[in-house]
Each structure stands twice: as C-alpha cells, then as structure tokens.
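help with these tokens:
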Amino acid sequence: VGVPILKFQKEETSINEESLIGIAQGGKQIRKCKEAHDNALDLLIKLASLQTSFRELDEAMRVTNRRVNALDNVVIPKLENTMMYIASELDEREREDLFRLKKVVAKKKADQKLVDAEKKLEEQRLKNSQLNTVNENDNDDNLIIDEFEDDDNKVDDDDLVYDEM
C-alpha cells in the first residue's frame, strides 16, 4: 500500500514570439526573461511537487507511527495478557485433569482391592465348604467305623457266663 504522490506539470501556452521583437533588440531581452521565467517556473513546479510529496509522506509516516504506537502500547499488551490468561487457564485445567486422574486411579485401586478381597473371601468360603464336606464325609466314615466297632464290643447274653454261687 503505497502513498500516492502528486506531480505537477507545466501547461504550455502558445504565444507568438515574433510579436516580442522590438526596436534596439528589446525582444531579445524579453526572450531571455521569458526563458528565465520558464526555467524558474519549471523549478517551482518541481519544488511544489516535492513539497507536496514530502507532506503526503510525512502524514503517512505519522499515521504509520500512530499505528505502530497503538500496536506497541495497546494491541500487543492486550494480546500478551490474553495469552497469559489462556496459558494460566490451560495450566489450571491440566492440574484439574491430573487431580481427576489421580482420583480415578485411586478409585480403581480401591475397587480392585474390594474385588480381590471378595474373591479371597469367596475362595476361603469355598475352601471351608470343601473342608466341611470332607470332614462330614470323614465323620460319616468314622460313624460307620464306630458302629462296626460297637458291634464287635457288644456282649451277647449268651456269651456271658454266670458263676453260681
């Protein structure tokens, strides 16, 4: 985006030079004055063009400097504050997520311990019930053996011998 620069130009008018010829070579002097005037006019036009260009460039530089100052003093600090705020919010969320993750892991560990304890308890119950079944079978066997032993130890009346006195 450039700055438009104005450029002035001289407008030529046609004047009959022969009408300037006079007595005692006065027309020559008038022609010299006219050429000097034309040169001065050309230089003035260049000067006016340059001065206008300098003013336009100066105004464009002022606007640009104001924009730069606005960026340096207003926009960039706002953006930096926004970035710091976003970074702090992201850090806070990260800490919250880490805290939640720790809670979830602790809950899972507690649940796993509970499940393990229930499994152990169930295994213990199963073991105890198997032992009780084995013990009952042993007791039944013992009872049967005891019955057989009792039968052997019984004394019939026929086996008894009474002494008569």
The mean pLDDT is 81. Helices lie at 26-153. Residues 129 and 135 are 10 Å apart (CA to CA). The chain is about 80% helix and 0% strand.
